[in-house]
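Supplementary notes (optional reading)

For those who missed the lab, this is the record we used. Protein: Succinate dehydrogenase cytochrome b556 subunit. Length: 124 residues.
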Amino acid sequence: MNSKRPVNLDLRTIQLPVTAYTSIAHRISGVILFLGIAVLLYALDLSLTSEEGFEQVKACLTSPLAKLVIWGLLSALLYHLVAGIRHLIMDMGIGETLEGGKLGSKIVIAVAAVLIVLAGVWVW
């Protein structure tokens, strides 16, 4: 089969629209949340088993690495929430046009960035 279509296999030169980036980030944040729930459930289980376990989790959560992980999980949760609300709004028929999709993606990025910064201030 001889296809005359141009093929671009260099991923560095592919220009995706902003809607694609928000969609990809929504999926990645969902995976991060799925994996992060396991860590949080383990910490909850450890804290509920005994008083020593609670103190161990409490001491662990004061470390900068644990705060970074918590902030990362909160960031994923907030982005996933804002992007999910955008999907629900689009399911109602609002913002389904090309221009509306681009505007909605930009709003998601802006709102999520503000919420992520506020979560960082709250955690630290």
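If you only remember one thing from this example: The chain has a mean pLDDT of 94.
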